[in-house]
Amino acid sequence: MINDSKNITLIMVAILGAGLSILMGLAAYQYEINALNLQFKNEMNEKAASIEREISVKLEVLYAIKSFFNNSEFVSEVEFNHFTQAILARHPDILALEWAPKIQQDDRSTFTAEKRKLYPHFEITQQHSQGLMLPAKRRPVHFPVVYYQPQSQNELIFGFDLLSEPKRAKAIHSAIDTNQAKATELINLIQFSAEKAGFLVFLPVYQSKPITTEQRRQFTKGLIIGAYLFEDLLTEVFDRSNASYYDIQIFDSTESQDTLLFVHTTSSTIQAETDSYFSKTLKPIHGRQWTLIATPSEAYFEQTMSPMPYIACVVSLLFVVLIMTFSYVLVIKNKLLEQSKLHLEAISRTDSLTNIANRRHFDEVILNEWSRARREKTPLTLLMIDIDHFKVFNDTYGHVRGDACLKEVAQALNQSVTREYDFVARYGGEEFAIILPLSNHVNLIAERCRHNVEALQIPHRNSPSGSVVTITVGVATLTPDADKDLNQLIVQADTALYQAKEQGRNCVVFA
Ligand SMILES: Nc1nc2c(ncn2[C@@H]2O[C@H](COP(=O)(O)OP(=O)(O)OP(=O)(O)O)[C@@H](O)[C@H]2O)c(=O)[nH]1
Fold this sequence. Notes:
Radius of gyration: 58 Å
Shape: rod-shaped
CATH architecture of the largest domain: 2-Layer Sandwich
Number of strands: 19
Bound molecules: guanosine-5'-triphosphate
Number of helices: 13
Number of domains: 3
CATH superfamily of the largest domain: CHASE domain
Helix content: 40-55%
Largest sheet: 6 strands, antiparallel
Distance between the termini: 45 Å
């Protein structure tokens, strides 16, 4: 029972320990994830800053071209090409740099004729819905692209009237009215198919220094245009970094509905199961409000996660195993100690010759039985037994035979009582005692003892009272009460034994 409860305690402690180890591992894992989330957010903040830097550098070149125009009465095509080629050499990720003068409808034919001297097929154009370039419709003002670099891939924009398309027109009007660079929303660039979306930035150039909106509209000389593709513009930002570990999207959130401008997807399609989600509104870029959204992939966490949580879990599990082993060894040791203690106790209560209870054990048992009988007001019987003329037996046959005789007598007495709580002990020397609690057949048992010993037929040739070994029994029964004590019972049994001896031995006498 005790062992069972110890085992259950051990198992409980093991389960608790294992649970705590797992909890520790999970806590370490969560700590790691939180740290990685923070690291991811920091990385993304840096990325957002470098996107802002990259874009602003690319857009700044327009101001350099504007200064070039402001410092010159007339910029020729050769001069424009020369100036912008130098810029494009340093910024190959700019799709095109262009110049579009303002042409009043009244001047359109003169302007066209002038251009045709050099370019016989020149026309101010606009794009048909199916992509064809057709002559631009009549409108009060045109902004046809006349200078552009690089020349290759951009031929379609030559003569294209920027005001013919509403998204471009919206940014142009805003740029002219405010004297600021203005970017379009996401548009399909003329020179590419629909998949290659980008944006244009317009920077107005004026004839003098107009102050009011009206003056700006009136004195607009033309527009400097920068054409950009998102993928080209942001390639450098993402190439420089370990971009395969996260998805990035850039939205234009200027209008009420967000427009997706740019997507960078990782090779790993699995999104990490974390709440890591980064969103940042970039600094306004020439009238456009862009938002960067980034999510890490599972690979990001796999790559950057340290083995610390697993180590913590394994180490604490090992610790639990160690404690459990130690506790188990202690339990086993205690069990062995307990067993040897019980064994020693049993030895200390047993007579080493006859293997029945010794005097010490007798004293304990008779005391307990006396108390019980007193509590329960029941009779308690004591048989005092003595082997007749044992000294003579020893003298006749020697001590070794004497010992053997004692053993046989003890065995016979033991077999004479059948109830579990009847108790046989060696009282000392050749004397035995039997305690019979609650017995109704005391005389029968005493007589059976005497008879069983005689029936052993152990020869006793020099005995004055017979030819075999016999015993004499003195019996006393008392029901304990306040006036009686245990000693009385023992004295009475002893007296009965003495009387039996007097009566010639090999008999039973009751007190
Ligand atoms: N062999 C052997 N003899 C023992 C042992 N213990 C006591 N004796 C002997 O038992 C004898 C007891 O002798 P007595 O007390 O005179 O009693 P008795 O000879 O039996 O005489 P009665 O009791 O009057 O019949 C002594 O000789 C003891 O040496 C023992 O363990 N082994």
